[in-house]
Structure formats: C-alpha cells, structure tokens
C-alpha cells in the first residue's frame, strides 16, 4: 500500500485531506495516510487556534466566509465520513445587507475547522492506515526513490509528502539581532520577537506602570493592542452602534503607554461598514472576466514583458468606472474616464504620488484614521485611494487565480507581489471598530501616535528610546515585534526547511520569494535531481502562487488540483 505523509494540519491541510479522500473514494483505492502536526487543534492551525483569546479578531467579514463550502459525504475504505456543513450553515449566519458586517474572534472559525477535522478522524480512527502524529517533522530525505521523514529519532518511509505547514519563522533582522543581544545583558528589559501566540505577552499585561514599544503598525499590532488593554484596569465600550465610536474606560488607575511605529507610519484602512456600502466597489462579472483574460494573456504565455502594465492597466479601467459611478459619494471632480485612469496608474506606480482626489498622507495619523473611518461608513466623500483599495480587494481572487504559476520573469512576479502587498493596507484592512479602538486609546492617553513614522531608536540602560522628527522622545522597557516574517525561503530558519534546502529537494522561485512548484503543487527541484514526490501548498509557495495568506485560498482550486494530480500519479505507478 502506498504511503503519503501530510505535514501540517491547518485549514489547507484539512482541505487537502478532504480532497485526497474524495479523489481516492472515486477510484476505490486506499493509501496509508500519516498526518503530522504539533498543534492542539487539528484543522485550525496556529492562526485559527481555538485557545487564543477573543481579542484576536478575523479581518475578513463573516459574510465573505461563504467561500468555505460544505463537505460532501465521503465513502472511503468501507467507512463513511458524513457530510459537514458550510461555515455559514454551521454558525446559522444571517446578515441583512444594511446591517454592519460581523468580524468574529478567530477562535470561532478555529472551532469550526477543528470540528470539521474531528469528524474525519472519528470516522477513520480504527483504520490502521490512517494515523495522526502530534509531532513536528525535522527532516525529509530522499532514500531509494522514497522519502524518509524523521522526528525525535523516529522515522517513517513514505512515497509522497505534502507540506502544508503555513507560516515559518525566519532569520532575525539585523535590528532584532542587535536588540536580542542587548536585552541579554540588561535583565530589566523585555523583548518579544514574535506577537503570537499572544498569551506569551501575559508577563507584561496588567502592570501598573509600563511603556511598551510595538514594532509594526498592522493587523498584529491591533491584536497586541487589544490584548494588553482589555485588562484589570479598563476596557472598550462602543457608544454609538451605527459608527462603532468607542471610548476606553478605566476601572482603576494605570500608567500604560503603547508606542507603535513602522517605516512609513501609514495606518490600516477599515473595510466598508456593510454589504450595501461594499457593493459600491464591486466590479461587474464582465469586468472581472475581462480582467482575468488580460492577465492570462501574459501570465500563461511565454511572451516577454518588462512591465506589469498587463495588471495595472485593466484594473485601472475598472477602478475608473467604479469611481465615476460613485458620483455624489466621491470627491467632486470633472475628470473623464481616461484622465482618472492616468491618475490611478500614477498612484499604482508610485506610492508617494499626490493628487487632490487622493488622501493626503502628510495629514496627522489620527486624522487619516478618522477620515478613512468616515469613508468606510459612507458619511464623507470617498477618496480615490480608498476606492482603489476596495476595488483591488474585490479583484484579488481573480488576480490570484489568473497569475499563479505565471510564465513571466522572476522580476515581474516580484513586482506583482509587491504591488499586491502594498494594497493590503486597504484590501486586508480591519473592521471599523478596530480603528475606532485605536482612536479611543489615543484619546485615553494610552496609545501614542507621536512616534509612528520611522523614529530614531537608541538603546539605553532604561530601554529603547524613540525619538521623532520633532525631537520628542520616549523610552520603553518592553519591545514587541508585531511585524510578520515574509515567506522568503532562503531566510526560513526552521530545521525542516533548512534541511530540504541543504539536500537540494526544494529551491526558491526567486531569492526574495518561496518554493518553486508546478501548477499542481509539486516542487521543482534543481536540475540534478529526478522527480521528487514532495508537494507544497500555501505560504511557502509564495511566488509560484500568490494570495497565499487569505483563508479562502485554503479552500480553493489549488488544493483540489493537487489531490487530482496525486491520484493521477498513483494510478500511473
């Protein structure tokens, strides 16, 4: 009996397992399935861990999770795995289009994913050819055309390996290395090199007097901010249910100061309030079909190109149409469609481009957040950059599908990914309530935005001293890194990935990106190697595929394509 190891049982691993069992059931074949994962909640993974606090929120609307569809009934190895409901069916989701979108805690989706996995394990638990191993795999080696995987001096031989291991830690930046060395000789200081799991921060929570620096100004910063301030001293209270206007009230005195900062200091942009407002930015089906065709005309051909005009020009056309249709909801102007397109292209090509239709990034950070909240509520005219970001979000699934495994140069792949990453300040933005909470903490004199833009940082005996352009300074004894590592394969420092690289079983598609794979997920190895039966789905394949960070991509066609390819290879042997 052929053996396959699935390493990593988060959402992608779960959907891969389901599709594997479905594909095998159709051809009435059975294989030995070994699953390896060190997490407590199989199916959920680290991001959706069921044990994380309620202060970690989803940043995708619950409405959008319609893409997590139900699993059909599966008959495999004389066992029946019952059908499992879609996410919306599971939580009895209903959402009138005029009501505010819901953004539940991440542990809620984690519970769904974990329950969905458990139904498989319970159905197959007495099957000798199905085993779950609560272990972290350290090595994979090619051995006589098979693969030997090892963990804690135990080893398994298998014919295929599927890696769905998600986010991996990378080598520390020079700045973090310097801080780490400094803290080692200054016991009164604390450095947290990662934000998650967030309960690791409990040692600095609930202290009466403390200044905490937060490196990064993105989604993880908001989780950190919420965790540290929903405490014994106070909490948030929404005082206007229509706008999510929030105050932070103190139940007893605390001298806490949070000091976030980033290279550009630009804030996250909240998503529209509800489905009705969000529909303002929705491209038509015809526009999305045309957008997809124009990208594929370049990405699926071997045509040489040295620009990403094939992406920016068609999306600028869609954005221009949407912005013209906003009419009274947008900033007043008398520009034609082609004139708007030119402005949009300028902004896409240059993030420092200024125009009266574009929000002035030189405004105070507090004012920027306030303006974007009002735009998300639909109560002030929409700036062009806000429109660009929301339309981009609606186009992302099409872009991810059309551009993955593109036959363009590595440089073009890098540019497309960089532009998509830049869009995420808008397209991956948080709920309005999160940004109202930021403002409420500023109002309560707990969070300061005075050092948010690339401050000078000096290490002193008392900690990190941040100095801004106005020569004001503040010192913090605790520093939390909330910047998530990019999936740069050559910088990943986990033993398994380093071992695969050293053994030439994987290679990066680009020095700045992830593992190079085929369209069905199998690794493309250096030329000296024969076909190696290792497949990679998810974040580590960034570059070969894009959009790897989105939860809905965990339940998409790439995983289905891998299962079909695996069964095809199985039949060929």
UniProtKB/TrEMBL annotation:
InterPro entries membership: FAD/NAD-bd_sf, HpyO/CreE_NAD-binding, L-asp_N-monooxygenase_NS-form
Domain of life: Bacteria
Coiled-coil annotated residue ranges, if any: none
Residues covered by the FAD-dependent urate hydroxylase HpyO/Asp monooxygenase CreE-like FAD/NAD(P)-binding domain: 5-168
Gene3D superfamilies: FAD/NAD(P)-binding domain
Entry-linked PANTHER family: BLR0577 PROTEIN
UniProt-recorded name of the protein: FAD/NAD(P)-binding domain-containing protein
Organism: Winogradskyella damuponensis
């Amino acid at each position: 009996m052929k053996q396959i190891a699935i390493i990593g049982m988060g959402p992608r691993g779960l959907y891969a397992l389901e599709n594997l069992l479905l594909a095998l059931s159709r051809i009435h074949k059975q294989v030995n399935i070994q699953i390896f994962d060190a997490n407590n909640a199989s199916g959920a993974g680290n991001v959706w861990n069921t044990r994380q606090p309620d202060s970690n929120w989803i940043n995708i609307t619950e409405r959008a999770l319609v893409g997590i569809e139900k699993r059909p009934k599966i008959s495999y190895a004389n066992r029946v795995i019952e059908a499992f409901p879609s996410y919306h069916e599971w939580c009895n989701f209903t959402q009138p289009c005029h009501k505010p979108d819901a953004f539940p805690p991440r542990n809620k989706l984690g519970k769904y994913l974990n329950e969905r996995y458990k139904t498989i394990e319970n159905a197959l638990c007495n099957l000798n050819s199905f085993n779950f191993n609560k272990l972290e795999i350290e090595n994979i080696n090619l051995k006589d055309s098979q693969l030997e995987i090892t963990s804690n001096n135990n080893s398994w031989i298998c014919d295929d390996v599927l890696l769905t291991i998600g986010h991996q830690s990378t080598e520390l930046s020079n700045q973090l290395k310097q801080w780490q060395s400094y803290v080692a000789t200054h016991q009164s200081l604390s450095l947290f090199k990662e934000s998650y799991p967030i309960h690791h921060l409990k040692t600095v929570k609930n202290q009466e007097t403390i200044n905490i620096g937060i490196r990064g100004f993105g989604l993880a910063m908001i989780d950190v901010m919420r965790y540290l301030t929903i405490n014994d001293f106070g909490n948030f209270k929404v005082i206007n249910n229509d706008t999510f206007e929030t105050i932070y009230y103190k139940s007893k005195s605390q001298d806490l100061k949070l000091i976030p900062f980033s290279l550009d200091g630009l804030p996250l942009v909240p998503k529209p309030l509800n489905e009705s407002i969000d529909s303002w930015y929705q491209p038509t089906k015809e526009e999305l079909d045309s957008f997809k065709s124009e990208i594929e005309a370049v990405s699926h051909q071997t045509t040489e190109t040295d620009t990403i005009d094939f992406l920016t020009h068609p999306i600028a056309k869609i954005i221009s149409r949407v912005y013209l249709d906003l009419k009274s909801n947008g900033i007043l102007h008398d520009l034609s469609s082609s004139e708007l397109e030119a402005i949009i292209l300028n902004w896409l090509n240059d993030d420092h481009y200024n125009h009266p239709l574009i929000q002035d990034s030189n405004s105070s950070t507090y004012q920027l957040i306030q303006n974007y909240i009002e735009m998300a509520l639909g109560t002030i005219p929409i700036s062009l950059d806000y429109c660009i970001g929301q339309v981009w979000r609606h186009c992302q699934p099409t872009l991810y599908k059309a551009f993955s495994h593109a036959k363009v140069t590595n440089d073009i792949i890098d540019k497309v990914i960089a532009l998509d990453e830049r869009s995420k300040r808008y397209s991956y933005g948080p709920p309005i309530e999160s940004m109202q909470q930021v403002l409420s903490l500023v109002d309560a004199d707990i969070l300061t935005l005075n050092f948010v833009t690339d401050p000078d940082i000096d290490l002193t005996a008392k900690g990190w001293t941040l100095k801004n352009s106005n020569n004001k300074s503040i010192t913090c004894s605790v520093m939390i890194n909330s910047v998530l590592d990019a999936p740069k394969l050559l910088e990943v420092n986990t033993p398994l990935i380093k071992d695969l690289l050293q053994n030439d079983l994987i290679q990066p598609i680009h020095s700045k990106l992830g593992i190079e794979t085929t369209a069905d997920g199998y690794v493309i190895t250096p030329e000296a190697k024969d076909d190696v039966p290792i497949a990679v789905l998810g974040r580590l394949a960034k570059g070969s595929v894009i959009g790897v960070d989105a939860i809905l991509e965990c339940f998409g066609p790439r995983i289905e394509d891998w299962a079909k390819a695996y069964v095809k290879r199985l039949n060929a042997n």
